[in-house]
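FAQ

Q: What does a record look like?
A: Structure on top, sequence underneath. For example:
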């Protein structure tokens, strides 16, 4: 992944925010390098990590795939159709339930700064080290690939070898790098 941001997708109401979500869904937007990962691989992760047939009890928590172009729309529709015919892994799908995942063109609004980079925000010392690198600019902080990578490693994603390969490029002090190594090891999936 190049970077991620959390926010709201698929809605139409004006001035969306966490306290006024209206007809929007909570969502994550992912920037990725198509030379390194295929869109279809991201769709496979999407369907493996959640139940696409789960009943929607509140639009805020609904399942959706928001596409940028006709190729993404077709790939998402194919993946959803495979899910609907039982080719996906989730138990509800296998029992014949119909997917409730919505497909729609991208309409995305970034969430408030305090919602961005959840795992990193739990570690004030690391935020205190990284945010000044962006002169306190929250938008630049949110859009940083290095910040996204630190957040992911804090969550336990990636391998120890990946972390070691990237560690010197993340802009962290020696103490922060050691903390990140320990956190990654404790949270690895």
């Amino acid at each position: 992944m190049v970077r991620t941001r959390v926010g709201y997708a698929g809605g139409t109401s004006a001035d969306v925010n966490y306290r006024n979500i209206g007809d929007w869904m909570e969502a994550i937007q992912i920037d990725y390098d198509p030379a390194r990962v295929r869109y279809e691989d991201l769709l496979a992760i999407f369907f493996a990590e959640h139940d696409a047939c789960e009943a929607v009890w509140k639009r805020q928590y609904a399942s959706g795939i928001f596409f940028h172009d006709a190729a993404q729309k077709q790939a998402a529709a194919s993946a959803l159709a495979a899910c609907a015919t039982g080719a996906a892994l989730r138990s509800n799908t296998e029992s014949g339930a119909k997917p409730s995942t919505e497909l729609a063109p991208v309409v995305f609004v970034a969430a408030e700064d305090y919602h961005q980079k959840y795992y990193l925000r739990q570690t004030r010392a690391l935020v205190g080290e990284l945010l000044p690198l962006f002169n306190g600019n929250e938008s630049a902080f949110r859009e940083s690939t290095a910040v996204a990578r630190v957040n992911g490693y804090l969550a336990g994603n990636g391998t120890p070898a990946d972390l070691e390969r990237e560690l010197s490029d993340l802009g962290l002090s020696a103490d922060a790098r050691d903390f990140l190594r320990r956190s990654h090891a404790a949270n690895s999936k």
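Q: Is there anything notable about this one?
A: The chain is about 40% helix and 15% strand.
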